[in-house]
């Protein structure tokens, strides 16, 4: 029988590889460099509310892993190998994904990204220098997220909430932004080539420039 709480533990390299892990609270645990390929975490918490610290997934192997209905707030995912990672219906406020890799590099000129992050709270999360091109990233809350130097080109960002968000700091060309609350997006300063928005959104964006869209 699985314990319901694991505290201050260095997780073994292959301890959870490929497993389904459900309903466990991990407090200040170290998952760094562990192999979590194809591991499924369901209804788990990795956030210590009393000490306001998360778990460490630095340089972990997260290929095909998933977090569903989990609390990964302020967890550290720096330099993780995260191709195909799924984060669904999670609390991820302040989580640090900077320099994580969602890419499969085939050659110096051929590569692709894969990630499924949806219906999650990503407020104040750090995605700086992350490549999330052509990924499924819909229905998320991006309030105050750090996306400096990141690329979301071609991704589905529909249904998102983007208040207190710096649109100028990342590449959003070709993105689907339909049904999103676009916050302070200024179409004069952000490259929106190929971006999809609804007529109502276009009216709101144009209104900021003093233009009335009719019909």
UniProtKB/TrEMBL annotation:
<dbReference type="InterPro" id="IPR001646">
    <property type="entry name" value="5peptide_repeat"/>
</dbReference>
<dbReference type="InterPro" id="IPR051082">
    <property type="entry name" value="Pentapeptide-BTB/POZ_domain"/>
</dbReference>
<dbReference type="Pfam" id="PF00805">
    <property type="entry name" value="Pentapeptide"/>
</dbReference>
<protein>
    <submittedName>
        <fullName>Qnr family pentapeptide repeat protein</fullName>
    </submittedName>
</protein>
